[in-house]
């Protein structure tokens, strides 16, 4: 049996952190929580827009909560009116790539072209040019730094992720509420990758529980940009 040396294991662990570590800035500028821990929090949604997104907007409107939606270009082209309704409701829109690929081992030119295509799709549908991006699966790679510089995008990871693509609503809400903290960024999903008709019901029900619970706990909801770069 071949034994892996401690040095080799350390290299592997370091490489994994660089690619997907929430606080890693190895492959480009990235944020995962506010630097000042105010009693504020950002609620974010990935993988939309989807047919379920308007129902998320209704819950957020009921509680007057702003959120940040990291939209996938293919889904924006599929549902341009839904993408536009997110912007019209006053929520922030970020770039979550065009094709929702895992970009590990992909070329810099492919990465740049994919996110540029998403910028165009989002801009055409919503009139908004994103300044934030989130890598699919949280995976960054060589080429991200150049792409972000060219497109003017800051990477955003998360403080807590709901694992809402595989957990039931109660488990999602319990996971988020038990891990939330001042200045944190919550990652949930109003879609499921590039699926045309995703089942986002567990996430929607979890949001119905999470939002009022956090308001009751004294949290103030902000967009990611407001949370990271407060103006006063």
Task: Report a brief summary of the structure.
By secondary structure, the chain is of the alpha/beta class. The chain contains 9 helices and 9 strands.
Description:
With 232 residues, the chain is α/β, with parallel strands linked by helices. The chain has a single domain, classed as TIM Barrel. It has 9 helices and 9 strands. Strands 2, 3, 4, 7, 8 and 9 form a 6-stranded parallel beta sheet that branches. Strands 1-6-5 form a 3-stranded parallel beta sheet. The model has no long low-confidence stretch (mean pLDDT 95).
The backbone outline, from C-alpha atoms, is globular
CATH class group: Alpha Beta
Query: Looking at CATH, which topology would you report?
Result: TIM Barrel
Structural class: alpha/beta
Give a quick account of the main beta sheet: strands, pairing sense, barrel closure. 6 strands, parallel
Q: What share of the residues lie within helices?
A: 40-55%
Low-confidence stretches: none
Number of helices: 9
What is the terminal separation in angstroms? 60 Å
Q: Write down how many β-strands occur, each being a DSSP E stretch of 2 or more residues.
A: 9
Number of domains: 1
Q: Which superfamily, in CATH terms, is the homologous superfamily?
A: Glycoside hydrolase/deacetylase
Question: What is the level-2 CATH architecture name?
Answer: Alpha-Beta Barrel
Computed CA radius of gyration, to the nearest angstrom: 17 Å
Beta-strand fraction estimate: 15-25%
Order of helices and strands: HEEHEHHEHEHEEHEHEH
Determine the mean pLDDT.
95
């Amino acid at each position: 049996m071949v034994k892996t040396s401690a040095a080799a294991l350390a290299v592997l662990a370091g490489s994994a952190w660089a690619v997907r570590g929430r606080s890693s800035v190895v492959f480009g500028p990235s944020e995962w929580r506010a630097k000042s821990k105010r009693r504020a929090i950002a609620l974010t949604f990935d993988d939309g827009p989807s047919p379920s997104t308007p129902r998320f907007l209704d819950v957020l409107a009921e509680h007057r909560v702003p959120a940040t939606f990291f939209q996938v270009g293919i889904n924006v082209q599929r549902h341009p009116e839904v993408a536009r309704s997110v912007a019209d409701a006053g929520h922030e829109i970020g770039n979550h790539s065009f094709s929702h690929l895992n970009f590990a081992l992909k070329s810099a030119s492919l990465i740049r072209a994919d996110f540029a295509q998403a910028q165009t799709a989002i801009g055409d549908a919503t009139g908004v040019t994103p300044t934030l991006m989130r890598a699919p699966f949280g995976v960054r790679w060589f080429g991200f730094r150049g792409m972000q510089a060219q497109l003017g995008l800051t990477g955003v990871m998360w403080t807590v992720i709901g694992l809402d693509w595989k957990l039931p609503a109660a488990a999602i809400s319990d996971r988020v509420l038990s891990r939330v903290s001042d200045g944190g960024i919550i990652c949930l999903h109003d879609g499921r990758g590039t699926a045309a008709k995703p089942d986002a019901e567990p996430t929607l029900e979890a949001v119905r529980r999470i939002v009022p619970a956090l308001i009751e706990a004294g949290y103030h909801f902000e967009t990611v940009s407001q949370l990271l770069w407060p103006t006063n």
